Amino acid sequence: WSSYSSTTDVEVIPDAPRINCCDATCGGKIIVGWTPVVCDAKVSAYSLEIAVDGDEEKKENANFVEIYNGDQTTHTTFVKHVGVYKFRVRCNSEVGWSSYSSTTDVEVISPNAPLIKSCEAAGGKITVVWTPVVDPRVSAYSLEMAANGAEEKKENAHFVEIYNGDQTTHTTVAKNVGIHKFRVRCNSEVGWSSYSSTADVEATSVIPAVTRITKCTTAKEIIKVEWTRVEGHSVNYVLDMKNDKSISNAQFLEVYRGPDHAFSFSADMPGNHSFRVRAYNDGAYSEYSSLCLVPMESVLFTSTILGVRHRAAINTLLPNNNITLLFRASRDGYEAQKFHQFCDNVAPLWVVYKSTNNFIATAYASVAFTSSDSYKPAASGSCWLNNLENSSGTISSSKYFNTNHLEKSLYDN
């Protein structure tokens, strides 16, 4: 035998596949496709690898990770971040792995930034409206505000998120009088967009702080409500009341508006009286205070003639009053027989009447009317007249007695 020839080597490996499509679509989705490999050594699988922001020239810095291993020639993957993604693929056969394909890059970009359309301040509130971003990846918007920040030095404008949601408008409360800055961005599966341009708006008023009812006291049918003062310029208050036994007062009704932080209210019927108060200035209203509930078992009576201003005089005239309304001429009729229909055989009896020239007088009788058409006697001091209010508005609790003829204390006609 001769000696052997020189050895000749031959490597049997399949060709490397070639990536023929790599597209980033909405929703953080990337679709990668590659050519099938046809060779004598049967190809059994393909391996697709991904690297994020790797250095193409220095592949050792691109940290590739296998994301697919199978016999298909296309694969869809989902990514969570904006950036450049690199892909490479190889195939396996009976004789081993092929070399890698060339690396293919695809960039996933963030959604466009929304634009602020309008920014308006009124009544201590600011309403911001921005354009929707037409991109199915967008899931939410984040609105940020900075009060009195410097536009030229944005590091001095301390932005704070005030809204995060899927709406494209938001109303917020002005923090103070002055310039308020706003910016907005949107979020998606691949992260946040850039910020919109900053929009400025000047707030000329702020909503006052919430006041608090500190005391609700009762004396007779007078309810006094007191609340805390709110600091600020030109702060006024609105006090509302409702009574659970009044059909007409099923909703809250305003009973006071002004700068004071206390108000006395004359209850005109029994029941639970609920009070709430809020502060306002320049048309900007605070939230309502918590409710204050005042139960009233009974009241003097509902009068169309008497008011709160007469209460002190009435307490002097009738110190132990427990009055029930029997007759009202405007309701029951002005005829004498109507008076006797409702008031005969009742004692003691107190009558209030008002003249056409605004005099208010009262009369008290300790003995009952019986329609006898005769005089009736009474004990000294038990029947009297009173000029409660004259036409000038002067109120008096003085009583006038018939001391000379007690046998004629009451004429019952």
Structural features, described:
The structure is a single chain. The protein has 413 residues and is mainly β. Helices cover 5% and strands 44% of the residues. The strands form 8 sheets. Strands 3, 4, 6, 7 and 8 form a 5-stranded antiparallel beta sheet that branches. Strands 11, 12, 14, 15 and 16 form a 5-stranded antiparallel beta sheet that branches.
Characteristics:
single chain; 413 residues; mainly beta; 3 helices; 5% helix
Poorly predicted ranges (pLDDT <50, ≥5 residues)? 54-60, 149-155
Helix content: under 10%
The number of helical runs is 3
Strand content: 35-45%
Oligomer: single chain
Question: What does the main sheet amount to?
Answer: 5 strands, antiparallel
Average pLDDT value? 84
Backbone CA Rg: 45 Å
Alpha-beta classification = mainly beta
Identify the overall geometry.
rod-shaped
| N/C terminus separation | 166 Å
What's the β-strand tally?
30
Q: What would a concise description of this structure say?
A:
The protein has 413 residues and is mainly beta.
Layout: helices, strands, pairs:
Elements: E1 19-25, E2 29-34, E3 43-52, E4 65-70, E5 74-78, E6 83-93, E7 96-97, E8 104-108, E9 116-122, E10 125-130, E11 138-147, E12 160-165, E13 169-173, E14 178-188, E15 191-192, E16 199-203, E17 213-219, E18 222-227, E19 236-243, E20 253-258, E21 262-266, E22 271-281, E23 284-285, E24 292-296, H1 311-317, H2 329-332, H3 336-343, E25 349-354, E26 360-365, E27 374-376, E28 384-389, E29 400-401, E30 410-412
